[in-house]
Structure formats: structure tokens, C-alpha cells
Specification:
mainly alpha, hpI Integrase, Chain A, 2 domains, two-stranded antiparallel ribbon, 14 helices
Length: 316
């Protein structure tokens, strides 16, 4: 069998998956190439993958000193994303290309238990938007639009008029601007359309601007301080996306439809993160096949009789 390197495998994987939903996998594989590129596939082990991930993380922190003033190790979840990407590559080399007699056993690291996503109640959301006055007035429209659409902060602040079809009440974010590297279609509800109508004519290109310039972002530290002063602890701009999901599920939107509306990568991800919020809706669905006939358990009858006898004895 001809010996192939990690770099050979990445090149072939890229050719076979061009234009598909494997862009994130390819991105992670490319990031490990400087440390695994010339490594023969047969010699890549679980330990070698861990070493390459450590080397990538250290190099990234060294090359981005301003963005990361304090070096922090990658979380177990992030490290597992890279392990899964390599495992996908090795399985293709084994099963599809016959470059390996057997793939290495790549073990995932144990991750911390997920906490429930923080979301805003309608009263909290109203309080947050009402407080956006004075020098923070330009925060109000982007926050309200994020609540109405579930868009991430980057997509909100980068929003351009040419992506919006007012007649069809639709917004299409191009693939190069969306996290999943595929176009994301957003149906615009009444709230979103009202916000856009109020912004029309303020800038030719961007929807959200401040003093004639596009709003790049709301600084996380300033936003946290602002929310803490309002008693909204643990709230970030991304909380608007969690709120969008929570409100939809609690008002009857299915998990499948929510995944489409919010542009999540999979229905499973939505279920794991927000599924517990749909309990009331599921209880209502359970009643669709409720059996109305009365059924009395023998145990309940016997217990009732025993309790009655005991009461009679006490009365005597």
C-alpha cells in the first residue's frame, strides 16, 4: 500500500467536499496542517493529534497578542471539534480511499456539563430596550432586530440593504458572511420590518450606523456593565439569539422550524440547547391522542377501601 501523508488526505478531502457543508471541518484540518502535514497517516495516533492541537493553540495565541492578552488553553469542547475533524478525515482514508488498513482510535475529551442558556423574559427585554437612551440610543435598533430575527451580532452589524428584499419580506445573508459558510435566508416578521422602515434612508449601504459610520460592534465589557446596572446579570448580545429561540419554542414553534429560522447547523443542536423550553408545547401535543374513557386502578380502589375502614374505626 502506498504511503500517504496527512496533507495528501486533506487535499483529497477538500476536492471531494468542495462547496458542501464540510467547510468547518476543512478549516480545522487546515489549521493542523503545519504540525501534521508531512506525517504519514499510519503514524498519526491519538497522542499525536493532542500534541498537534496544543501546538496550534500555542501558535495562535503567540500570533494574536492583542486579541488574547492572557493565554488561555482551548476548552475541551473546542479540542474535541478538532479531534472529530481528524477522525472524519481518517475514516475517509480508511473506508473510502483504502489508504489505511484501520483508522486510529481517536478518543474525545470529557467536557463540562452544559448550563442552560440565559434568555430574556419579555419584561426584561422591554427594560433593556427602554434603557437604550442618550449615548446608548444607537444600541436599541440592533438589539431589537436581533431579538426579532435571532441573528448573531456580526450579522446584525454587518447588515447591508442589498441583502434585503422588502417586497418579499426576506433577508439573505451571503455564504461568505455567515458562520456555516452557506447562504442564510431570514423571513422578516412585523417587528423586523418596522425596524428596517425606520432605518431607511439613513445610509446607502449599511442598515445600522452611528454618526454616519457602520456600527462595528457593542463592546462586550461596556454591554455587561450596562446590563448589570439594570439587574440583567449574565446577559450578552448573544443572549438575544437565545431569547429568540426560547420565545419561539414557548409559543409553539417546532424544533425543526426553529433550526431553519435561526440558521442552526442541526436540529439536534437546537434540541440539546433549547429543547427543555418546549415542554409546555409538547404537553399540549400529548393531548392530541388523550383517551377519554375512565379507568380506575384496582390498587386505587383497594387503597380507598382501606382508608375508609380506618376512618370508620376512628369514628367509633
Amino acid at each position: 500500500m502506498q504511503q500517504h501523508t496527512y496533507e495528501d488526505a486533506v487535499r483529497r478531502f477538500q476536492r471531494e467536499h468542495a462547496g458542501r457543508t464540510a467547510d468547518q471541518t476543512l478549516d480545522r484540518l487546515h489549521k493542523l496542517t503545519p504540525w501534521l502535514g508531512q506525517q504519514p497517516l499510519e503514524s498519526i495516533s491519538n497522542a499525536r493529534i493532542s500534541e498537534a492541537i496544543d501546538q496550534y493553540a500555542a501558535a495562535f495565541l503567540n500570533n494574536n497578542p492583542r486579541r488574547h492578552k492572557q493565554a488561555r488553553p482551548l476548552s475541551a469542547t473546542t479540542r474535541n471539534h478538532y479531534r472529530i475533524a481528524v477522525r472524519t478525515l481518517m475514516n475517509s482514508a480508511w473506508r473510502n480511499w483504502e489508504w489505511l488498513d484501520a483508522p486510529p482510535r481517536i478518543r474525545l475529551e470529557q467536557t463540562e456539563e452544559r448550563h442552560e442558556a440565559r434568555w430574556l423574559t419579555p419584561d426584561e427585554a422591554e427594560r433593556l430596550l427602554a434603557a437604550c437612551t442618550g449615548r446608548r440610543l444607537h444600541w436599541k435598533a440592533p438589539l431589537a432586530f436581533a431579538l426579532a430575527t435571532g441573528l448573531r451580532a456580526g450579522n446584525v452589524f454587518d447588515l447591508q440593504w442589498k441583502w434585503i428584499n422588502v417586497d418579499r419580506r426576506t433577508l439573505v445573508i451571503p455564504a461568505m458572511h455567515y458562520k456555516l459558510k452557506c447562504p442564510h435566508r431570514v423571513p422578516l416578521n412585523r417587528d423586523a420590518m418596522g425596524i428596517l422602515a425606520a432605518r431607511r434612508g439613513l445610509d446607502e449601504r449599511y442598515v445600522f450606523t452611528y454618526r454616519g459610520e457602520p456600527i462595528k460592534r457593542i463592546h462586550p465589557r461596556n454591554f455587561k456593565q450596562f446590563c448589570d446596572e439594570l439587574g440583567l446579570h449574565g446577559v450578552t448580545f448573544h443572549t438575544t439569539r437565545h431569547t429568540f429561540a426560547a420565545w419561539h419554542l414557548m409559543n409553539g414553534t417546532s424544533v425543526y422550524d426553529l433550526a431553519k429560522l435561526g440558521g442552526w447547523s442541526s436540529v439536534k443542536m437546537v434540541e440539546q440547547t433549547y429543547g427543555h423550553l418546549a415542554d409546555d408545547y409538547l404537553h399540549a401535543m400529548a393531548e392530541n391522542i388523550a383517551f377519554t374513557a375512565e379507568v380506575q386502578k384496582p390498587e386505587a380502589t383497594a387503597l380507598s377501601g382501606t382508608m375508609g375502614n380506618a376512618q370508620e374505626q376512628r369514628n367509633e
